[in-house]
Amino acid sequence: MGFADALSNAGVRYLAASPETMLAPGVPSNVAHAIAAHENDPHAMAVAVVSDVMRTKYAAGDFGDFTPAAAFDVLDLDPAKIRLAETSIKRLNDDVAARAGISEARAVREDARAIDGMVRSPIGGKGLPWHADRPAIAFYDTLAGDGRLDRALRSDAHAASDAVGDLVLAHRESDDFEPFGDADYSDAAGPTIHLPTSHRQIDPWASAGVSETDNDFYRKVDQGAMTRVIA
User: Fold this and answer.
1) Of 19, 114, 137, 165, which residue is the least packed, with the fewest Cβ within 10 Å?
2) Is 168 exposed, middle or buried, given 0-12, 13-18 or 19+ CB atoms closer than 10 A?
3) In Å, how far are 55, 57, 151 from 27, measured between CA atoms?
4) What is the pTM of this model?
């Protein structure tokens, strides 16, 4: 979400990307035709781009063929949609923070920990920074369906899910991504959000100058308030 927010503020209208699951050589060049053929129809363009990416197969010799991404989206970065998503996320974060220290906070932590981050390969990945980057929609949907939380909190979570989901023009994912050891990315729809569930997952590359907390989005939505509850 932070990247989407930054690009939207810079005037970028659409983002075609994988949530930390892209493999070289990446997006195939034929998506240029998908874009040109649907210049005046953003939804059709998005569907065509995602289809081209996810049906492409790259040959890897003895390792077989592989698609370039475990999940891929085209997001609408319309400033009004981004603002609505941020407002909804902030309301949820603040409401969760207000319940810190009670049983509902424990439920939120358990819900966050039940959702894997984007590093899902059973081999390697220990040094990658994306263990805490979890699918935002999946997290908010989990909260919205958790009967341990009160109705107001579940309503906030549902609103956040809807607002973030409204950014997604097209999406496809794999539930059996062979290059990552048959990892399941079936819940990886839409953008991710930084949701560390332990202190060591907070900004793991900050010492190298790469921060996921020192940005306008993180501050605008009070994401630190959520982090203090679940980490």
Assistant:
1) 114
2) middle
3) 11, 11, 42
4) 0.92
